Amino acid sequence: SEMAEQVDGEGRAAARPLLTDLYQATMALGYWRAGRAREAAEFELFFRHCPFGGSFALAAGLRDCVRFLRAFQLQDADVHFLASVLPPDTDPGFFEHLRALDCSEVTVRALPEGSLAFPGVPLLQVSGPLLLVQLLETPLLCLVSYASLVATNAARLRLIAGPEKKLLEMGLRRAQGPDGGLTASTYSYLGGFDSSSNTLAGQLRGVPVAGTLAHSFVTSFSGSEVPPNPMLAPATSEGPTVDLTVSVKLWLERVCTHLELEVQEPHPGERAAFVAYALAFPRAFQGLLDSYSVLRSGLPNFLAVALALAELGYRPVGVRLDSGDLLQQAKEIRGIFRTVAAQFQVPWLESVPIAVSNNIDEKELARLAQEGSEVNIIGIGTSVVTCPQQPSMGCVYKLVSVGGQPRMKLTEDPEKQTLPGSKAAFRLLASDGSLLLDLLQLAEEPPPQAGQELKVWPPGAQEPCTVRPAQVEPLLRLCLQQGQLCEPLPSLAESRAFAQKSLSHLNPAYKQLQSPAVYQVVRSEKLQALVNSLSARGPL
Amino acid sequence: SEMAEQVDGEGRAAARPLLTDLYQATMALGYWRAGRAREAAEFELFFRHCPFGGSFALAAGLRDCVRFLRAFQLQDADVHFLASVLPPDTDPGFFEHLRALDCSEVTVRALPEGSLAFPGVPLLQVSGPLLLVQLLETPLLCLVSYASLVATNAARLRLIAGPEKKLLEMGLRRAQGPDGGLTASTYSYLGGFDSSSNTLAGQLRGVPVAGTLAHSFVTSFSGSEVPPNPMLAPATSEGPTVDLTVSVKLWLERVCTHLELEVQEPHPGERAAFVAYALAFPRAFQGLLDSYSVLRSGLPNFLAVALALAELGYRPVGVRLDSGDLLQQAKEIRGIFRTVAAQFQVPWLESVPIAVSNNIDEKELARLAQEGSEVNIIGIGTSVVTCPQQPSMGCVYKLVSVGGQPRMKLTEDPEKQTLPGSKAAFRLLASDGSLLLDLLQLAEEPPPQAGQELKVWPPGAQEPCTVRPAQVEPLLRLCLQQGQLCEPLPSLAESRAFAQKSLSHLNPAYKQLQSPAVYQVVRSEKLQALVNSLSARGPL
């Protein structure tokens, strides 16, 4: 994994500086012309509603943001391109300024990767020169929004599946192009999946990868193929090699007799494919059962190959189904595994993992995860990657202070108002470690104390309420200080473990996927007073 | 644009070879072990249902596929990674084979970028060595599926908007990470949008880019700022420079008197922001009106700056609204433009473009595009990029022949059956150029002749029907032959024009967005006979 990070770091930044909306560049020129390019500014990146109608989100994408910020530097070609779309009489000093920009004056505080995140709590606080931190808006939103969305989606799917089922992300082909796929694979793992089909996510991000064979492999065999070398040595390497094709043929007869099938019924091409795969992967043989008929072809062919391998000391890693009623078929197959295990005295066969896939969404996953299900591994593509229930997160990046003065957007749409000023955020916990509420306050206020009562303002409330937290956790960590990484980022696997641990401290009422309880994010009295005083001035 | 292509071509491939599902690599080893790595194979990439419940799709992504294929080459690090996840005793010859792979034996036929595409008609036919063309499955699906989805989505939005409204794609921050955004911007332009906010899409793909200013720019000004240089020369450069802040102040008084507002009402920070922007972009000034109050602040401030600029010979490029009832506000603003134009004898003001944005979906777009709407420019983000009505296309890549023999997937799910054999595809047209139906036939059959009756089989039909096309167009063009590009790819703008032309030949009944007529894709008698004979053999 360290090597993986290294390859990634060497390979490229997470995004290029010009991966930004043009208006960031036009505003940059505006700030420049107004003499404000280097004025100190702070933006907050947050969301206003949890995705999918849920009550929580997972913060993700920070590692990509850090990689992007540390590598941030416009190249000559980038500046030339901007010059080509900006007014021809633009001050050349502006382009020199752009060319010299880097993030050495940028400071970022952030919710650690995998944290529980709630509406209004900043995922990122970005401070630095106004022109620069404005330019960063779009790439940071692009890097955080989808990562957090897909991590949250994966966490929901994990909650539905329960802790035991293995979840495989396999949505690369349904993603929004190459990096869409890479982002999806990385952050669905962070959110609670076990592995991904995406090989690049394995290489670059250290995500465990998985995969065996597809229908095209099976249907590419007619049965007339002769393996150039059908001989297989025993698993222990002790004893003579065996012609696997011969052994499979013998086992097929026994299996067909037991299952009351004609030995001609199982498709010879499918069997040839299974034999070819088993010769390449004797320790990792999986049968894809539904290219022809599951019960009359796929299953007997699988059993013949699996039992032939077993004679040599190998155990198959499973079977896979990709069509039909997956729950019902898994039950039937498990039943057959049990009778065949008894018949041939191969007890390991009873517990051969059954993997399923085929457009599995939250509803179908709940069915597959129900009590008594014989499904062990669930592959999910489209539903995890595209987040069809809500395919975007709606993060925003809002100016909260400039030149040391708090700023607040006072639009006619109260929904779109922002909270002014540089802020700190705390999580208030009960004595059992469960979450009570999140508190936003001004950065200069002293942190709340455990065991001490404090007055807080829920949004929209007419008066404050009181809370006495047993524990207090600061939420935002200093991540980049003047461009320098303050502490090593946790590995992806560590962030994944942190996400699962965080979720375990969330009251079940907030984890309900439909109509959950709403977790409160409240304001300190001082922050509320600032909001009131800026609002009282009115929009004018 | 030629430079753009060059930068892109030099910069990187569209995707890396390991951006693939692991099972492609495990199957590769299976083919290798079976001695079949170099067997001739052909796959077809197609979709089974048009997206969004519509009756057509646009083919897109070919340029990325070509770029990917021409650069295809596994690096040492890639092969090492694969070795780390494959069995440790794998034949080293396999890895040597992988390391030496390129697409010099791959031939691709394709629907040209921007073509109308219908279910079952191949977007790509990919032939070459079995192991290699199998490895290509996932990246090709990844590159084609989302590109075609978003191009189709953009074409639908264009149909709703009509030809006159300008459509701006601005969804980068809502896309699935960096390349998700780049793909979205590129192919929504192809599908009929006019421009994108995505600067990188401008630099790398030649997409026209657009953008002016955001609320953060406006709210970053308090009004106390003093521009270092408030002087502006006239548009013609003839005559003295003018202090824009002074001129704006004078105009503000006149405008407020006319609008019956107190001169203190319009927000001074907003006005300072407009002045700063106008100083940077005197020829491209746009006012973002809704940071505070549209009618009591944004509009009078805009008018003051626009009229001050106009005195110097500059014309503003428009106003933008990002909240509230966009249609109603546009109407009010147009009305005010008219009275102010009359009052101050500035007729150009009547037709200043009104741009709108704010979560615009198909329904809201229809409202904004209705007869009498005063909206001119429509910015769409989430709805075009995430395709929320159906966020994935469901393209598949299926084996149709191997070793010269047709292959067909005969699953228990008839939906998932495939059409066997190497095929040709034709579009049959009426004498007025309108589309009748698409015909799939075996590659070896003579092409259908214009004016000649032929028997064809609609899917699921019990008997053939007859058709006499006035014109016949072959659909698939040879794109790569043994790895060599056969003809230069059209530019993105050419493909965009081709898409609009293709759509104009589609009968309106097929273009309805809800419950459209279903366009038929039929089979030749020979192809149907092959399907029947392979089916008759049954799954076994």
In short:
Chain A has 540 residues and is an alpha/beta fold. Helix content of chain A is 40%, strand content 17%.
What does this 3D model show about the protein?
2 copies of one chain form a homodimer. Chain A has 540 residues and is an alpha/beta fold. In chain A, 40% of the residues lie in helices and 17% in strands. The longest helix of chain A is centred in the first third of the chain and has 25 residues, at 137-161. In chain A, 54% of the residues are buried. Mean pLDDT of chain A is 93; it is low at 1-11. Chains A and B meet through α2, α4, α7, α8 and α9 of A and α2, α4, α7, α8 and α9 of B.
Explain the layout of strands and helices.
The structure is a homodimer of 540-residue chains.
Chain A: H1 2-11, H2 22-33, E1 40-47, E2 57-58, H3 62-71, H4 76-85, H5 92-100, E3 107-110, E4 116-117, E5 124-129, H6 130-135, H7 137-161, E6 166-169, H8 177-191, E7 195-196, H9 199-205, H10 215-219, E8 231-232, E9 242-243, H11 244-259, H12 268-280, E10 286-288, H13 294-311, E11 318-321, H14 326-344, E12 354-356, H15 362-368, E13 377-380, H16 382-385, E14 395-402, E15 405-406, E16 423-429, E17 435-442, E18 454-457, E19 465-467, E20 471-474, E21 477-481, E22 484-485, H17 492-504, H18 508-511, E23 521-524, H19 525-536
Parallel strand pairs in A: 6-7, 6-13, 10-11, 11-12, 12-13, 17-23
Antiparallel strand pairs in A: 1-5, 1-14, 2-4, 3-5, 3-21, 8-9, 14-15, 16-17, 16-20, 18-19, 18-23, 21-22
Helix pairs in contact in A: 1-9, 3-7, 7-8, 7-15, 8-17, 11-13, 12-13
Domain Nicotinate phosphoribosyltransferase C-terminal (chains A, B): 423-530
Domain Nicotinate phosphoribosyltransferase N-terminal (chains A, B): 18-145
Enzyme class (chains A, B): ligase
